[in-house]
Amino acid sequence: MAYEIERKFLIDRIDEEYLVSLGATKKEIAQSYLVPSPSFPVRRIRKTEENGATKYFYTEKRAVGKGFACEENECEISANQYLKLQKERDFALNEIVKTRYVLSQNGLDYEFDFFPFFPYYAILEIELQAEDSPYEIPNFVRVVKEVTFDYAYTNRSMAKEIPLI
Fold first, then answer.
1. Domains, the chain, ordered by start
2. What is the pTM of this model?
3. Whether residue 89 has pLDDT greater than 80
């Protein structure tokens, strides 16, 4: 059992070339949500493309406690498994397509997600070891607001309805 612990921020969109110049890696992501199971309310499949390589993943998530940690089980799957799981899609939710830049800095991973429906904004996720871990927001980032506890800014929620800023 793995845990995902992250702080999440709506930020002003940053020049993508600038992120690359800082050493960020780029990944194209398409993810679809599956019908929930009794034990995992969030199930998704994800196709990623990075440096010409395509990979597929299956993920299950559920909240843990009252904080912002989630139990997350993720494994790489084959292209055939990915196609087979498409039959379990929750068609009430749209596929989410995004470009992710990951910047490792100050011992943390900063994930910048750029969505086609947000021309002026992006989402910054900071992966943490514990809920009380210290973190810094890079000085080139302008935070519009923290959305860690705002369900409207989860990818699953945005697959249903894009939040108004």
1. 2-158 (2.40.320.10)
2. 0.93
3. yes
